[in-house]
TrEMBL record:
Superkingdom, natural source: Bacteria
UniProt xrefs under Gene3D superfamilies: Glutaredoxin
Protein known as: Glutaredoxin
Signal peptide: none
Organism: Streptomyces nodosus
Alphabetized InterPro entries for the sequence: Glutaredoxin-like, Glutaredoxin-like_YDR286C, Thioredoxin-like_sf
Amino acid sequence: MSRIFRRKGAQGPQDRLVTLIRKPGCHLCDDAQIVIEKVCGELGVPWEQKDITEDEELHRLYWEQIPVVLVDGEQHTFWRVGEERLRKALS
C-alpha cells in the first residue's frame, strides 16, 4: 500500500517534493517527466516517480488520470504538465 505524505511548512526548494505517478509505455508520462526534470532541476526541487502498475492504491486512485503530478502530496495536475504552472506552484 502506498502512502503519500504531505510536506507541511516547506521553507525552501529542498523541502518541496514533486511526485510523478506514471505507468510504463505511457508517452504522456514521458512528456511529463521531461517537464518535471527540467523545472525541478532548475529550482533544486527533489522529485520522485511511482508506477501505478506496482501499487494497488495508486492504481485505484489515478488509473484514468495518468500521468498525475503531486506537489507536496497534493494533486497538482494530470494528463499534461505545464512548465510555467508547475514552476509557479513551486515558487
